[in-house]
Design goal:
Layout: E1 9-14, E2 17-20, H1 25-32, H2 36-53, E3 56-58, E4 67-69, E5 72-79, H3 81-105, H4 110-113, H5 119-123, E6 145-153, E7 157-164, H6 171-184, H7 188-191, H8 200-210, E8 221-224, H9 233-243, E9 246-248, E10 253-256, E11 259-262, E12 269-270, E13 273-276, H10 299-304, E14 309-311, H11 328-336, E15 343-344, E16 348-349, H12 353-361, E17 366-370, E18 379-381, H13 387-399, E19 404-408, E20 414-419, E21 422-431, E22 433-436, E23 440-441, E24 447-450, E25 466-472
Helix pairs in contact: 3-11
Protein name: Circularly permuted ATP-grasp type 2 domain-containing protein
InterPro entries: ATP-dep_Glu-Cys_Ligase-2, CP_ATPgrasp_2, UCP005522
Length: about 475
């Protein structure tokens, strides 16, 4: 039977007998005193409240409907403060190096000239934007909001699975999960000293205001959404409301003399910072996709002229592409002259002949991902796939090897989770959110995603995963 690190229980103390980890002890005592009926009633109450508030997630191509509830699990994921301190230091280090990398490739390209990253991996990358070459951005920051996916494997070691630097989502669920737990179980928050997360919108707004164009002392910030049919629209509206700023679509904005304005009932109002939740290709029909009805004609020119700040910057995607991911530890060493605090998952790059050979010979053991894939789509989980699925995927890899990477199937950590059969262990990951402005900041917490299907390693909401509240204990 496979061994998985259990977040709540340890079997090391007395043979195989499970012992509650110390930082879970108070919660475990509380949980043991709850009846099954109480837990079931609270679970139903949380579902009802989430539906009333409208906390849903759109699933494209889902015949059952355009939106569904993301399952919320009422058993929290608890992290000891010492573990969080190491995680936080590693995340700050990593995001700092990634921002330096993006600035470098759009300017001096020192890392390419040093032979650390092959030039074709960058300049032939679909996420590279030549329109950003030699464009200066405020404070040299490109990824103002980063959502870094962390997994735990082996004997509890943390690994970075992905860097999400384009339009990372999920922070609204982190905030709403906490509000839900405080509403359902207020007594738990008197028993534990849990780091708060509810100040994230204030932290985000301060961060966005800090990167306004030079000379702007009282910046106007907006959140730009593709519209209500986007899968993360709830989050766009939620964050705008929480920050007290306008939620706009492309049609609400226009550019005149390289300045961006918002249409209001009192006339045009200048916009200084746009927290955009729209992909690069759709931002400006004059510069990117001419058929885009979501963007603002002339936005790129205003951006290049330094009259508006876009967060995250155009072209950040080149740094979170899965073909670039294997080089992030090298970036940390190159730009910061430090050893990485957080490790990558070992990765095979199928564009390399020897890595391709190994991957093809071991597909049943590996997880294979499209380098541009996201949301759990376009991937093969070898141990959970049929022979036919493996052979079909083999043909795709052979046809386009540079489009894939492969990784060992990690024994992701598990945490007790309330499922149909009762409380059972389920695999999970963690997405903390890192903000880069005049300084790098983050709240103590993140979005824990959990695979609700027994044995599943895919935690994505689009693939049936759920979420948990994440507690960072302060003592």
């Amino acid at each position: 039977m496979a061994h998985f690190f259990d977040e709540m229980y340890s079997g090391e103390s007395h043979g195989n007998e499970a012992q509650v980890r110390q930082h879970y002890a108070e919660f475990a005592n509380w949980l043991s005193a709850q009846s099954a009926e109480t837990i079931a009633r609270k679970r139903a109450e949380s579902d009802l409240i989430f539906r009333r508030v409208g906390i849903t997630f759109a699933v494209y191509g889902n015949d059952a409907g355009t939106e569904r509830l993301i399952p919320f699990d009422i058993i929290p994921r608890i992290i000891h403060k010492a573990e969080w301190a190491r995680l936080e230091a590693g995340l700050v280090q990593r995001v700092r190096a990634l921002n330096m990398f993006i600035h470098d490739i759009y300017h001096e390209q020192k890392i390419v000239k040093a032979g650390i990253i092959p030039p074709e991996q960058i300049f032939q990358n679909a996420q590279y934007r030549r329109e950003m070459q030699d464009v200066n951005v405020v404070n040299d920051i490109y990824a103002h909001i980063a959502g870094v996916d962390i997994v735990r494997a082996g004997e509890g070691e943390f690994y970075v699975l992905e860097d999400n630097l384009r339009v990372p989502s999920g922070v609204s669920y982190m905030l709403e999960n906490r509000k839900m737990m405080m509403r359902l179980f207020p007594d738990l928050f008197t028993r534990h000293k849990i780091a708060p997360v509810d100040h994230y919108p204030d932290l985000l707004l301060d961060n966005l205001r800090s990167v306004a164009p030079a000379g702007v002392t009282d910046p106007t910030v907006v959140v730009m959404t593709p519209g209500m049919y986007n899968s993360a629209y709830f989050e766009h509206a939620f964050l705008a409301q929480q920050m007290g700023v306008e939620l706009v679509e492309g049609q609400d904005l226009f550019v005149k003399d390289n300045v961006v304005y918002m249409r209001t009932t009192r006339g045009p109002k200048r916009v200084d910072v746009i927290y955009r939740r729209i992909d690069d290709d759709f931002l400006d029909p004059l510069a990117f996709r001419p058929d885009s009805a979501l963007g603002v004609p002339g936005l790129l020119q205003a951006y290049r002229a330094g009259k508006v700040t876009l967060t995250n910057a155009i072209g950040t995607g080149v740094a979170d592409d899965k073909s670039i991911y294997p080089y992030v530890p090298d970036m940390v060493r190159f730009y910061l002259s430090e050893d990485p605090i957080l490790n990558n998952v070992p990765t095979y790059q199928c564009r390399k002949k020897e890595d391709l050979s190994y991957t093809l010979a071991n597909l049943e053991k590996l997880v294979v991902k499209e380098v541009h894939g996201a949301g759990g789509y376009g991937m093969l989980v070898g141990p959970a796939s049929t022979r036919q699925e493996i052979e079909d995927f083999r043909a795709r890899i052979i046809a386009k090897p540079d489009g894939y990477i492969a990784q060992p199937t990690l024994a992701l950590s598990v945490c007790p989770t309330y499922v149909e059969s009762g409380i059972a262990p389920r695999h999970l990951d963690l997405r903390p959110f890192v903000l880069s402005g005049k300084q790098i900041t983050m709240v103590k917490g993140g979005l824990t995603r959990v695979a609700l299907k027994e044995g599943s390693l895919v935690v994505n909401s689009s693939q049936g995963g759920g979420t948990k509240d994440t507690w960072i204990l302060e003592k």
